[in-house]
Write a structure and sequence with these properties.
The protein has ten helices and ten strands. By secondary structure, the protein is an alpha/beta fold.
Length: 292
């Protein structure tokens, strides 16, 4: 049976690994702050990501790095809406808006976005769920404790995979109760958000706990601090580590991968999908033609 994700404008196929290219239109994101702050730079990056294999683009106007400050609403709108309008018109990929604010989500959807990626899991703004439900938009529910400026203090779990899955189940229930369709919801365990290095690695290894909730899973390991802890590499030298983390997550069942460097991750995941496809074919053959 084919797997897909319902957005406000289409069914996005998820049978193969699906890459979301990150376009941060901020001056202070931890990895690429300022690189795509100008509209032309953001559009140029979107075109390059499409050519490199991105299936969608995720546009954010707020840095969610640890300790980041929240821009005012007018500034966030000024950052994201013109970029989304241009990307929809000129790059022609599905666009997701990465925001915690209902007003920003509403304006982004009116500008052509079809997915809302809320790192707070709909907890920051009580109006967010209604905006998504009314638009019939795709929805990414991410796990986070606290806020970007307090989350590091909340990385205490009895069992990180079980606890994250339980807390995501609560957010999932709230989303469904608000009228968001089950086929519109993707879950994100929130790598790097209120998790230590060891907890992030455990979450990747035990993604089955989140997958058991019955929805596609997105992971966003891109260039994050835990990869630096593992490799010793600075932020801008973590793309190979990012691809490796995505490979591990894909082997454990993840469907969507939110990354800065689309090309290297696309190649790595293409190999994984080729291996997985070959494995399925061999298994089917063995069932149909058992050894005599």
């Amino acid at each position: 049976m084919s797997l897909s994700w319902k957005t406000s404008q289409r069914l996005l196929p998820l049978d193969a690994a699906c890459i979301a290219g990150i376009i941060n239109v901020t001056p202070d994101s931890f990895s690429d702050g300022g690189r795509h702050f100008a509209v032309e730079d953001a559009v140029r990056a979107g075109r390059a990501m499409r050519e490199a294999g991105a299936a969608l683009l995720d546009v954010g106007g707020e840095s969610t790095r640890p300790g980041a400050a929240l821009p005012d609403e007018a500034e966030e709108l000024r950052r994201v809406v013109p970029v989304i309008e241009r990307l929809v018109r000129e790059v022609a990929l599905p666009v997701s808006v990465d925001t915690r604010r209902a007003a920003v989500a509403r304006a982004a959807l009116a500008a052509g976005a079809e997915i809302v990626n809320d790192v707070s899991g709909l907890t920051h703004d009580p109006a967010m769920a209604g905006v998504i439900a009314e638009a019939g938009a795709g929805c990414v529910l991410m796990h986070m404790r606290g806020t970007p400026d307090t989350m590091d203090a909340h990385a205490v779990y009895d069992d990180v995979a079980r606890d994250v899955a339980r807390e995501l189940a609560g957010r999932l229930g709230a989303a469904l109760a608000a009228g968001i369709g089950p086929d519109a919801i993707v879950l994100d365990p929130g790598l790097g958000f209120a998790k230590t290095t060891e907890q992030n690695l455990a979450l990747i290894d035990r993604l089955a706990a989140v997958l058991a909730l019955g929805h596609p899973v997105m992971v966003g390991p891109s260039r994050k601090r835990f990869l630096g802890a593992v490799t010793g590499r600075p932020v801008h030298e973590r793309d190979a580590a990012t691809a490796a983390a995505c490979v591990a997550a894909r082997m454990r069942g993840a469907h969507l991968f939110r990354v800065h460097d689309v090309a290297v991750t696309h190649e790595a995941l293409a190999v994984v999908d080729a291996v997985l496809t070959a494995t399925v074919r061999r298994s089917t053959f063995d069932v149909q033609h058992p050894a005599s």
